[in-house]
Amino acid sequence: MPWICPGDTTTNSAVRQRGRQFPLFQGILPLKRARVPAEIVAGITLAALAIPEVMGYTKISGTPVITGLYTILIPMVLYALFGSSRHLVVGADSATAAILASGVAAMATRGTDEWLALSGVLALMAAGFLLLARIARLGFLSDFLSRTVLVGFLSGVGIQVAVGEISGMLDLPVEGHGTIDKLVTTLRDIDQANVTSLVVAVAVIIVIIGSRKISKKIPGALIAVIGAIIASWSLDLERYGVRVLGSVPSGLPRIGLPDVAISMNLIEKLAPTAFAMFVVILSQSAATSRAYAARYNERFDENTDLVGLCLSNVGAGLTGTFVVNGSPTKTQMVESAGGHSQLSQLTTSFIVLMVLLFFTGPLAYMPAAVLSAVVFLIGMELVDVKGMKNIYAERPWEFWVALITAAAVVFVGVEQSILLAIVLSLVVHTRHGYLVKNMLMVPDKTLGWHHQPVSTGEQVMPGLMIYRFMHNMYYANSQILNDEIAELVRSANPSLSWFCIDAAAVNDVDYTAAETLRRLHVTLAAQGVRLVVCEVVDEVRKEFERSRLTDLFGSEVFFQTPAAVVDAYVQSNSEAEEY
Q1: Are residues 364 and 396 in the same domain?
Q2: CA 220 to CA 208: how far, in whole Å?
Q3: Other Cβ atoms within 10 Å of 437 Cβ, number
């Protein structure tokens, strides 16, 4: 199998077909030789931008700084080889890191070997959930965490993360358990802040923001980190009370199971946290992969992607680091730098390998306030004010759902709020299906047919009304179906002889809705109104047959189009008049 192919379309097509059959390298092949330099440059750019970022995420996860680099070593390589998306970048993520810290807080002391071991167990458990989802082909579940709720959840995480790093930028001890408690404690002890650390943190923030104003391709965080290390070494900032990271181990991570006794009791305690991570990984990774696949008109298989994400987290758990996730921000970094395949990510992993082998020494001089400043900015970027404004402008009801989710993260906790987010997403979905804006269909001389609100009670012709139901028929909206039809028949003027349900927008009818249709058939028949149906898709017609609705209604009441209903109604009236 050729790894790099020239611009020959036949060769590219053949490689693409083989890549689809073989589970490896779907994110890399086909690869044109001319694109290799651009992919390598994009990988170098990602390394420059991501290395300070992932070290910052360790402040959120509570693990050693070196574990941040581990997240973009083996895990990133495994996803590049086994994942489906050509664009998704897998690594440390603020949301899953925050869930980790929340879930482990009651079981171990932050920063200890036990904390790190439990972090590895959680990565393996998240991988287990991803594997189960792949076996059951549950990739579609990513659609059930709505964009509205995700905006609120990530905004809440951003507030929590940013507030938690204020004490670090002031070089104050981290105290308090909740977001508000930490903020109150920091404000109470602010007179003990180290001014030098604050100056360093502010300088880092200015460099990062200033570089972004000039160009997003400038690695402002890397420049700020290197500058802070040089300043700390040359000016001996420790003399001024500035805390530094201290010795950072070099070399490759140790491969093996987490150093903790794994038992059913431990798994039961960690299961809610691992499941919350799984939900975020599934929704955020799939949404990012799908968006970039659509942008470039590329194939994307969310179930294959689950394999890549599963193996990435297995790699994380076995190499002494914490859970990894598909990162929208890192994915955008690569895309902006010109990368269009996983070769960019492989390049990044190689650079991280070089850093681990040869360049961890200078990290010992890095002021702790630098990482706090980097993470503070990450948190602020997660607070999607623009997204919240857009939701409020377009869907005010959904805005309150997003706000409740964000508030739950801040006041209750990350782990609990992701479960609330799932429930709220289902509530939003059910509400959309429940509040159906159904229509009445009436003829138009120019357009053929057009819709009128149900409130008009307009008839196609005297005695015939065609009612289009605008959603699947299921338990949540079956009462609306019943009530609207009953009211339309009761208030019709003139009274109806035929009532037609146009089912063009219906592709599913559940048991409750089928019972409602049976009841309507009997009720309307008692009032002398014939219930007919048109534009029923084949799948729904089969459901009607399984529910024995076809036998109850009679096969003659099913019509292909509204026009066919009108013709049959006219003919029925003509025959009645002749009789």
Answers
A1: yes
A2: 4
A3: 9
pLDDT at 6 over 50: no
Q: Which residues make Cβ contacts (< 8 Å) with residue 577, sequence separation at least 6? A: none
- Which letter, b or e, does each residue of 173-190 get, where b requires 16 or more Cβ atoms within 10 Å of its Cβ? eeebeebeebbebbeeee
pLDDT of residue 143: 66
**Average of per-residue pLDDT across 314-330:** 93
Does residue 10 sit within a domain? no
The pLDDT of residue 209 is: 92
If one counts the domains in the chain, the total is 2
312 and 277 Cβ atoms separated by less than 8 Å: no
d(C-alpha 4, C-alpha 30), whole Å? 7
Judge contact between 509 and 472, C-beta under 8 A.
yes
Does residue 109 share a domain with residue 36?
A: yes
Share of the chain above pLDDT 70, in %: 92
The pLDDT, as a whole number, for residue 378 is 81
Provide the CA 147 distance to its chain's centre, in angstroms.
Answer: 7
341 and 268 belong to one structural domain: yes
Query: What pairs with residue 467 in β-bridges?
Result: 440, 501
Task: Give the domain extent around 485.
Answer: 439-578
Look up tokens 């100056």; give the residue: 199
**CATH number reported for the structural domain that contains residue 522 in this entry:** 3.30.750.24
Do 212 and 237 sit in the same domain of this protein?
Answer: yes
Same domain, residue pair 403 and 477: no
